[in-house]
Amino acid sequence: MARHSGEIVFVYVVARDFGFAPNPFHGFCTLACCKPRIRSTAKVGDWVFGVAGGDLATPGHCIFGMRVTETLSFDEYWLDPRFEVKKPRRNGSRVMMLGDNIYHRQDVDAEWRQEDSHHSRPDGSPDASNIATDTQANRVLVSQHFTYFGASAPSIPGIVLNAIGYSNGRNHRRFSALVAQPLLSWFQEESRRADGPVVGDPFQFRRSAARFSSGSNKITDEVVEPLMP
Fold first, then answer.
1. Which of 7, 10, 64, 113 could serve as a FRET partner for 42 with CA atoms 20 to 30 Å apart?
2. Domain residue ranges of the chain, discontinuous segments joined by +
3. Are strands 47-52 and 8-14 parallel, antiparallel or unpaired?
4. Cβ-proximal residues to 14 (8 Å cutoff; 6+ apart), any chain
């Protein structure tokens, strides 16, 4: 895998893993919500890794890795027919419920519209706190070069984490591709052993009907049965 001197590797702790952010379904891994600082900065060719927080697994497990192959604005994402399938349908399957294609507006001066989604209020109305957080960066990261491990997340060897100087913490860390070479090499080998780009279900996939609000930092479950797994 070719490396370029300008490539950056972003690593952050995934506190919640529903299959919403990132959304690894339908052949693309997309980061369209949460993590506005990474979304505003990452360029095509850069890498984004998510490692499990303590509420999901033992810290140091790799939930996903993606190489950014495209960036889009929210409106470009909304209007692109490739990503129509990522618009949420809250009465659909678990995958449909967790669609991340949720923001659009009529023109550049209009307020953002938030679709009924994982980031909406329990009654489906817009959640102002999530809108404020998500739209800090009008940018969606798209990858066709990714492996999403989800609940099958493998443990990144301590020797790899020590080699790049990484430990779990708040916000994100960024490394040059050269410094992060041990992580990239390990990930490439794990990906080769995988059956496909999506290895396991998200850790919290069974709670697909839940909503999350950044304002309260709480997950609210709903008693809703999806149509199919």
1. 113
2. 8-220
3. parallel
4. 50, 51, 52, 53, 56, 63, 64
Smallest Cα–Cα separation from 43: which of 188, 142, 181, 129? 142
Run of H or E including 75: helix 74-79
Q: What 3 state SS string does 8-63 have?
A: EEEEEEECCCCCCCCECCCCCEEECCCCHHHHHHCCCCCEEEEEECCCCCCCCEEE
> What is the maximum alpha-carbon separation in the chain?
50
For residue 109, give every residue at least 6 positions away whose Cβ sits within 8 Å of its Cβ, in sequence order, or none. none
Q: Within 152-225, where are the H helices? A: 158-164, 181-193
Query: Rounded distance, CA 5 to CA 79, Å?
Result: 34
CA 90 – CA 124 distance, rounded (Å): 9
94: its two tokens:
């678990």
Identity of the amino acid at 229: P
Q: What is the mean pLDDT of residues 159-184?
A: 92
pTM (two decimals): 0.93
pLDDT in tens, 70-89: 999 999 999 999 999 999 99
Q: Is residue 39's pLDDT more than 60?
A: yes
Judge if the upstream peptide bond of residue 22 is cis by omega within 30 degrees of 0. Answer: yes
Give whole-number Cα distances, 116 to 36, 121, 189, 199, in Å.
Answer: 20, 8, 38, 28
- Tokens 């479950």 appear where? 221
